Structures are given as C-alpha cells and as structure tokens.
Amino acid sequence: MLCIRHMTLYTPEERIDDAVILIDYGRILAAGTSSTVGVPTGTEVLDARGLVVAPGFIDLQINGAFGDDFTQAPEAIWHVGAQLPRHGVTAFLPTIITSPLTQVARAQEALAAGAPSGWQGSKPLGLHCEGPFLNPQKKGAHNPNHLRLPQVEDIRHWSVDNHVRLVTLAPELPGALELVRILVDRGVVVSAGHSMANYAEAQAAFAAGVRYGTHLFNAMSPLEHREPGLPGALLAAPAITVGLIPDGIHVHPAVVALVWAAKGAIRRLTVVTDAMAALGTAPGRYQLSDQEVIVTEESARLVSGSLAGSILSMDEALRRLIAYTGCSLEAALATVTATPADLLGIGQERGRIRAGASADLVFLTPELEVVRTMVAGTIVYEKD
Q1: pLDDT value, residue 275
Q2: Running DSSP on this structure, what letter comes out for residue 260?
Q3: For residue 104, what pLDDT is reported?
Q4: How far apart are CA 321 and CA 253, in angstroms?
Q5: pLDDT of res. 298
Q6: pLDDT 10s digits, 28-77
C-alpha cells in the first residue's frame, strides 16, 4: 500500500489542498484530505509537497514519437508507449493513418500480442484509425493513393474487441453512414474528419452515431456564416465532443479561445497532440506513413507545405491551452483526462482520481512541468 500526501490534488472535478491519496494493487483506495482519508500504520509514504498531482493524461490522436511512426511500424507502439510518460501521458490511442488496410491489421496484431516482458509505460487503449475513408479534397498529409470509399467488407474486423477504439471518416462519402452505424454497434467511437461535409450532412452523421470531430478546423469544410459546414455543426452541437491541436500553428490562438468558449465549459473539448515521429527528437526528415516530412523547430510539413501532424507534447499542449484561453488549470485538465476518458466510455476507470480508478497519476511543478508519472500505482518516469 502507498500513501501520497501534501500535494495539491486536481481530480479534476475539484481541487484539494494538502491532499492524500491511498493506493493499493494499482488502484486508488481513497483520495481527499488527511482528515477524511485514514492511513494504516506502516504504509509507505511518498511526500509530494509543493507539487500538483492530476490524473494521467490521455492522448486520443498520436501518430508516433521518438523517431517511430505507428503506420509504418505498428510494432513500435510499445517503444513509444514506454517513453510517453515523460510528458505525463499514461494512456493513448496509437493512430494509424490512411494506408493499405494490412497496416491496420498489423497494428491490431501488435496490440493483441501484448507488451514485451517487463514492459512499463503509457497504456495503448486501442487504435485510432484515421482513414482510409476520407475525402480526397481534404486529404491533408494522407497519401491519396490509399484513400478508399467506405465498404462494409473493409471493416469486418474493426471492433473494440479487436483493438479498434476510434475511427475518423468523412461522413458525406457514399456508404459512410452505414459504416458509422456498424462501428457504433461494435462499441467504436466514430469521428467526422478530413471531410467536406456541409451542415446538413454533418447533422445526418450525428444522427447516425458520430460523436466526435477530429482536429477541429483542420482538413474540413470551412466555417461560413451562411453555410456553417462541419466545423459549425461540431461547435453548435452540445452533445458532440471535438479534438483540438493547440500548438498555435494548426489553429490560431484566438480561435483556440473561441473554441474554448463554445466547448470548454461543457466539457466537450479534448486536447490532442497529433504528434508524429519527430516528437522528442531533433529537426530533420522523418516519415509519416509512406510520405517524407520535413521537421523544423516549429512544425512538421510535407514537401508541398501541408501540415503533417505536429511535434507538440501533451504537457506543452496543456500549458498552451491555458495561455491561449486564460482558463483555470482545473478546467484545462479535463480536456486531457476526464473528457477523453468519458468519450471512450472508460470514465470510471481512467481520467479521474477517485476510489476504484486506476492509479494513473502525473506529478507537476506549479509551472506544469512533469516531474513524475505513475501508471497503475507504479512510477514509470521520474525526472532526474
């Protein structure tokens, strides 16, 4: 049994000063103050004085990191997962972008095989399949040679049980809504993205079961005052959650603030990194699936100039969200903890600090720098 004490705790539903967390067998037994949480004699104590402790971060869209690309080498999921805790990430959806369908199958096999012996790190919760059912007019950095029209046969093995958790598609494509209904019946979250859907087509997608919008504003129809398009529909629907890349490049900081005003208070915003292989490495040339990406200190782009994911870490994304919006830390934390967990239907297990939940925790300085990360009660990263 482990007792963590003397920190400022964000659950994130509430802030608790001089807090206590009691952990046993990888799960939280209790969380509160010293007057409400009894600590058995002989319990190991970890003093977190001066630190902020929050639920571990969940990234719903990450293409790779530390030199590895998931689409090109799905087996690298475990290598990347072992290093993500340095950025506070304790769970993630490895993202497979548009490619031959055999790459999705390889990624499913990699997850089915399980982690290597002795492995520790951020837990992959299942795949995010971003494509190949995308609109060619909004392909972004996806290779158009691999785009496909939706066909039921192509998703016959896509389900939560087979390690597919989230699918991004363009709902206006012929046959797309049938795929939405099938995937939703299998427990998969379906997202609208890389799409030219107009407002009416977006509404039809929501009615069919779409519950999420992939990297709002990027690779989708424009927001216009007479035709709100997909972004307008996503922003106007209180039941729909959206993903956002707050790096100041994919979306202007002023627009990040506007999105926060529409979605932040109702907890329908998830911050994602959309990071690619160059995260955590030096500028240079990298791969995003089978396309070359030129990475500078600021951005990742194809030779054509199109953005190709980001080099944004999750802890930096959190800091930028607060800087761009002026929101509280408590509110910002929900975008990387409780809200993504609720979207995936695992809010009882992850994304919150409460009795019964997995003891996935991130320890932060007051400046929100990660100093320690814990997964299922085990410290998997500690800053020197």
Answers
A1: 97
A2: I
A3: 98
A4: 8
A5: 87
A6: 999 999 889 989 999 999 999 999 999 999 999 999 999 999 999 999 99
Burial of 352 by CB count in 10 Å (0-12 exposed, 13-18 middle, 19+ buried)? Answer: buried
Distance from C-alpha of 189 to C-alpha of 343, rounded to nearest angstrom:
8
- Ranges of the chain with pLDDT below 70: none
Q: How far is CA 371 from the centre of its chain?
A: 21
pLDDT of residue 34: 86
Distance between start and end Cα atoms, the chain? 25
Three-state secondary structure call for residue 115: coil
Residues 154, 163 contacting (CB under 8 angstroms): no
Distance CA 221, CA 246 (A): 19
- 186 by Cβ neighbours in 10 Å (0-12 / 13-18 / 19+) ranks as middle
Given a contact cutoff of 8 angstroms between Cβ atoms, the answer to whether 374 and 56 are in contact is yes
Q: Is the peptide bond before 12 cis (omega within 30 degrees of 0)?
A: yes
Rounded to whole angstroms, the Cα distance separating 170 from 374 reads 37
Which positions are catalytic? 274
Residues whose CB is less than 8 angstroms from the CB of residue 105 and which lie 6 or more positions away in sequence, other chains included: 157
* Dist CA 312 CA 289 (whole Å): 18
Q: How far is CA 154 from CA 66, 149, 176, 330, 337, in A?
A: 31, 10, 12, 41, 32
Length of the chain: 384
Query: Letter for the amino acid at 193?
Result: G
Strand 123-124 versus strand 89-97 pairing type: parallel
Instruction: Look at residues 187, 96, 91, 195 and name the one whose alpha carbon lies nearest to residue 136.
Output: 195
Least Cα distance to 167 among 203, 127, 136, 138 occurs for 127
Q: Which two tokens stand for residue 186?
A: 């299998």
Sketch out the chain's domains with CATH numbers.
Answer: 2-54+353-382 (2.30.40.10), 56-343 (3.20.20.140)
Listed residue (263, 290, 296, 331) closest to 96, CA to CA? 290
Question: What does 171-212 look like in DSSP terms, one character per residue?
Answer: TTSTTHHHHHHHHHHTT-EEEE-SB---HHHHHHHHHHT--E
236 contacts 203 by C-beta, under 8 angstroms: no
